[in-house]
Specification:
Largest sheet: 10 strands, antiparallel
Radius of gyration: 37 Å
CATH topology of one domain: Lipocalin
Shape: elongated
CATH class of one domain: Mainly Beta
Length: 438
């Protein structure tokens, strides 16, 4: 029972996670297979079927498929559908051969021959269900020119993305992989489509801030507490100077009287001691502008010809007071402009600056789940450190360099590069992403 449940689970994962692939055939140029291990998790969808002695026939997309796992071969198609146990996978002069066996009757044996070209690309499959059945040949399709051109312009190719050093990785390297392997799903391989919007970004964010000593931080904290306390005392003292309302006054009259007295004493409108109607910031600014400027300021011809230095002498006293009050506000535009002018020409002491650089990886991915649902996911990972390793025995174009990226509170990620530091693949989030032509 447990074995049957496990087989059903793997089959569901294989078929559902490869849902994106049902919209097109498997093309010869999709990927290369250097060893039997590369076959694990791959799902072939041929385009042509031929039985010896019969005419070849075109196959609708997805009518026949061959999904390979570590222990089983999952076959879809009329008269051959089923789950076949994999006895072993061996390398041959034409590619690979997968020996199959019926789990219920070991005497019933078949095979799947995988024929590859000199580049290691699969050209066809030869399937024999049992020793009593004939071999059936399935051919993969050559990629159409329009699809070839569209994918060549979209995906990152093997050998295309060269990264001179680890530091260069964080300069905004952008990778669009072509194939991914789900290590957390038994090694299922998925052909990525442009519509899946899968990409990886490597970048850094640098922040610069002024250093402050411990004494300065404590002093500022005490000063803020003292200012808040003084403000509270000032509000209480101001309110105490306001004459208390008569006991016989109605509530509405008390509120109006308190509002007028509060306005005369300068108590903020939103103070908890006096309740007055609140106005929006736009209304207040509009009222102040209309009351202060008016027609007199707009009609003043001397003001239009005056220099900046002479403006305060032509403005009404109330407007000058308002401008001075605005300049005292830390978030006012005037205060920020004056601060910028004051800083111009100053020499910044770099020893008083704190510069922090953090490194990140963005992973964008359109996911397919076993219940048929889909989800666009965007995840960001912070990188705490990098470790570089070299494999001097790697074949040309193989994984010569490995960069291990220590992720914050996540399993480590890996970038694999060839001898010329060109990206071959990236491992992150339980998936291995391959470049096109890998």
């Amino acid at each position: 029972m447990n074995t049957l449940t496990t087989l059903c689970t793997i089959l569901c994962l294989l078929t559902s996670s490869l849902a994106a692939q049902t919209v097109q055939y498997s093309y010869i140029s999709d990927r290369t297979f250097a060893s039997p291990v590369d076959l694990i998790g791959y799902d072939f969808k041929p385009a042509l079927r031929e039985v010896p002695g019969e005419e070849p026939e075109e196959i609708p997309i997805g009518k026949y498929s061959f999904g390979i796992t570590q222990n089983n071969l999952y076959v879809e198609g009329p008269a051959i559908q089923g789950v076949y146990s994999v006895n072993n996978i061996n390398t041959t002069e034409y590619g690979f051969i997968m020996k199959l066996m019926n789990a219920r009757d070991p005497t019933i044996q078949g095979h799947l021959k995988i024929v590859v070209d000199p580049k290691g690309q699969v050209e066809g499959l030869i399937f024999k269900r049992s020793n009593k059945d004939k071999e059936v040949i399935f051919f993969l399709r050559i990629i159409p020119k329009e699809v070839q051109e569209a994918e060549a312009a979209y995906f990152t190719h093997k050998g295309e993305k060269k990264i001179e050093s680890i530091d260069s990785l964080w300069t905004g390297v952008h990778v669009r992989p072509f194939l991914r392997v789900f290590h957390n799903m038994g090694g299922v391989q998925q052909r990525i489509l442009p519509s899946d919007s899968v990409y990886l970004n490597f970048y850094e964010i640098t922040t610069v801030e002024e250093k402050r000593g411990i004494g300065e931080k404590l002093s500022k904290k005490k000063k803020n507490k003292k200012e808040k306390k003084e403000e509270a005392v000032a509000v209480q003292e101001t309110y105490s100077e306001v004459a208390p309302p008569l006991a016989s006054e109605p509530e509405a009259q008390k509120a109006a009287r308190a509002a007028l007295l509060a306005k005369a004493q300068g108590i903020p409108a939103d103070s908890a001691l006096v309740k007055v109607p609140k106005r929006s910031q736009e209304e207040i600014l509009g009222m102040e502008f209309d009351n202060v400027v008016g027609d007199t300021l707009l009609a003043n011809e001397e003001l239009a010809a005056a220099t900046v230095d002479s403006i305060p002498t032509l403005l009404p006293d109330s407007l000058v007071a308002n401008l001075e009050q605005a300049a005292a506000q830390p978030d006012s535009l005037l205060a920020m402009l004056e601060q910028a002018v004051a800083l111009e020409g100053q020499v910044i002491d770099s020893t008083k600056l704190k510069i922090t650089t953090k490194y990140y990886i963005d992973l964008n991915s359109f996911m397919y789940f076993d219940d048929g649902s889909t989800e666009m996911q965007h995840r960001t990972y912070q990188v705490n450190g990098v470790l570089e390793r070299e494999n001097p025995n790697a074949r040309p174009g193989g994984d010569r360099w490995q960069w291990e990226l220590n992720l914050h509170k996540q399993p480590n990620a890996y970038v694999y590069l060839d001898e010329k530091f060109r990206v071959n693949s990236v491992v992150i989030d339980g998936q291995k992403f391959y470049m096109r032509g890998q």
